[in-house]
Write a structure and sequence with these properties.
- The strands form 2 sheets. Strands 1, 2, 6, 7, 8, 9, 10, 11 and 12 form a 9-stranded mixed beta sheet that branches. The protein has a 3-stranded mixed beta sheet with strand order 4-3-5, with no helix packed on it.
- Helix content is 24%, strand content 28%.
- It is globular and about 45 Å long.
- By secondary structure, the protein is α+β, with helices and mostly antiparallel strands.
Length: 238
């Protein structure tokens, strides 16, 4: 079963959010057509707020900063330098098993956090991964997805070394009674998205049978430009 990982852009080569969205859509069509294997894009975005379909007006930035509306689930969040973003574009084994897909991504991130002595947890009724020791619940990883014709879009963000100040301007993920944190904030040492990439790939690949429906990949009749080749690519893992 093939699963490919592509590192699209890490510091200082940040990826504009709309450019990343265009890459996702192009890759989604290729996976849907059987012209590409399931692929996980890993990157750092330029700073941006994005609003999922359930975002409410009072949750938007208090200072009027523009927000990009997106078609994923979830609410408002921030992406930017120091945060590892992953976009798995995968044909699910069971298109109705969205909750299982989200849980599998959470498991992978929890395993990576354990490397740094961080006990990541789930919180009932709240997606993503949380740190709960020391009082206030603190979100360290967010997940927001869409499944279109059985193939996933969007994905997860893991706070590595990013500034947490942008979260002070919003009600992140619509949750007013919790905070946010990062690996760097929890450990007291700088851990960058590039530092995490190998382990995130390993943990996702380890769970490939839970994540990806096996399919044959055929070459298209005509050449299709590959919009995801910028930056480092690890190629297919078999």
């Amino acid at each position: 079963m093939a699963l490919e990982f592509r590192r699209v852009g890490f510091a200082p080569h940040y990826v504009d959010y709309l450019d990343g969205w265009q890459r996702q859509r192009a890759l989604h069509e290729r996976v849907l057509a059987g012209e590409a294997p399931g692929t996980v894009l890993l990157l750092e975005h330029s700073a941006v707020y994005t609003a999922g379909r359930r975002t409410e007006e009072h949750e938007r930035p208090f200072d009027g900063t523009p927000v990009i509306p997106v078609d994923r689930g979830g609410k408002l969040t921030w992406h930017g330098p120091g945060q590892l973003v992953g976009y798995p574009i995968l044909r699910l084994p069971d298109p109705s098993g969205v909750a299982r897909y989200v849980a599998t991504l959470e498991d992978a991130l929890i395993s990576v956090l354990a490397d740094y002595g961080i006990s990541g947890e789930r919180v009932d009724g709240r997606s993503g991964v949380w740190v709960r020791d020391g009082g206030t619940d603190r979100k360290i990883a967010a997940i927001g997805i869409r499944v279109d014709r059985g193939v996933t879009l969007h994905g997860f963000s893991l706070n590595a070394s990013n500034d947490l100040a942008p979260y002070d301007q919003i009600i992140a993920c619509g949750i007013a009674d919790a905070g946010t944190t990062s690996i760097t904030a929890e450990t007291g040492r700088t851990v960058t998205p590039a530092d995490l990439a190998d382990r995130v790939e390993e943990e996702i690949f380890r769970r490939r049978e839970q994540l990806v429906r096996e399919q044959s990949v055929h070459a298209p009749d005509t050449a299709v430009p590959d919009s995801g080749t910028a930056g480092r690519s690890k190629g297919a893992l078999l």
